[in-house]
Amino acid sequence: SFTEWEITEWSEQQAVFNFLYDAIELTVVFGPPIDGDVFGEDPSRPIVSLNFESLLDEEKAPPSSCLVRRLIFQFIESQGCWQEKCPTLYYLPQVLHDVSLVVSCCKVLGEEIEFLERWGGKFNLLKTEVDDTKVKLLFSASTAFAKFELTLSLSANYPSASLPFTVQKQIGNIGEEEISAVLSSVPTGHHYLRRIVSLIHQNLLQDPR
Description:
single chain, alpha+beta, 2 domains, 5 helices, 8 strands
């Protein structure tokens, strides 16, 4: 199984784990060790608290990294009290696994956004912009006489759920209906965002000849 975490500390009192290139830190504080547990690693040892903290410098980080961090914390906060999920050491591997899954998917999303920022021109994509947890895609194609902005709302369950969207027409006739038809034919899953962009380009923006 894959892991997205590193242990940076394991002491008598606590363990510290890092995710996402050290951008997110999880501190797990242990209760007193069980009698006879020399190494403090008995699965029934209580956990007093689990605390996630962001170490990402939002000022300096690229927008895609900030988006990824926001989505991961959206997931972390949606789970309620982590200590209730993980009252003893026994449950810690599952927590690390669950968080790793989300980190892994969001990390791929960040890479997809960076790809579109760099290579968007190949898909008639003028601009890729991150706005909080949304990504705005400005398409323009003279051959199809079309210019429009597609805004996709992202969440921590990317890429397993279809994305809510809005379309703003600027030139031409491509709007909600046309985009909706394309999006409904793109299956969710790996590289969902890139495949959406690619299919919009292929189906709507090619030379109509």
